[in-house]
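User: Second chain of the day. Same drill as before.
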Amino acid sequence: MLEGKKIVVVLPAYNAARTLETTYREIPFPLVDEVVLVDDQSTDRTVAEASRLGLRHIIVHEKNKGYGGNQKTCYDRALELGADIVIMLHPDYQYTPRLIPAMAGIIASGLYPVVIASRILGKGALAGGMPRYKYAANRALTLFQNLLMDQKLSEYHTGYRAFGRSVLEHIDYHQNSDGFVFDNELLAQILFAGFQIAEVTCPTKYFREASSINFKSSLAYGLGVLRVSFSYFLQKHGLARVKLFQSAARTR
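Assistant: Same format as last time:
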């Protein structure tokens, strides 16, 4: 615990057998109270590896539900366990678990209810091996979203996030996509609801075992981001009623 807050780390896993141990060993126990791994029908030994490492909370989907569908199960279980702070960490070791104390501390202290680990703050993205086309796409999409959504985030596309319990209870994340655009939809809902988001600089690692979506999926994600941005703009200015934001009435 941190300042009396229960911290649960969730690991949305798919074919993470090679990197799970490295990721898990860096999680700062006993600061973290529980770790939940949700396996989305991996074809490797992810579940067996999680059992070998002694994870207490392992959930295996009966069928592949997608990246967004995996996170829905992660957050549901974390809330059931009584989490005050939920940290979503990819088990592919692309992001370092060593940032967990800093991210949790920001929420536990009451400064911000949401923290994202940005690969773009500083120069860590390219230094860590992010492909230049992904870096360019990240910057372009982020600029577009900041303009339409009137925000100043350095990126919307990191997969390393921390949430206070009240945020996940307020946002109806179950209506979001089961695909990769889930991440973007969730941030848009959070911002629309008036929650503030803090960012911390995060080094990143791109290597063969780290997960990465293919070009087709990247294109679909990019189009999804554009849809979310336009929807946010239309809803905010009263030009349309978008289902995505109906459950995210402003809290501030």
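The mean pLDDT is 92.

User: Great, on to the next one.
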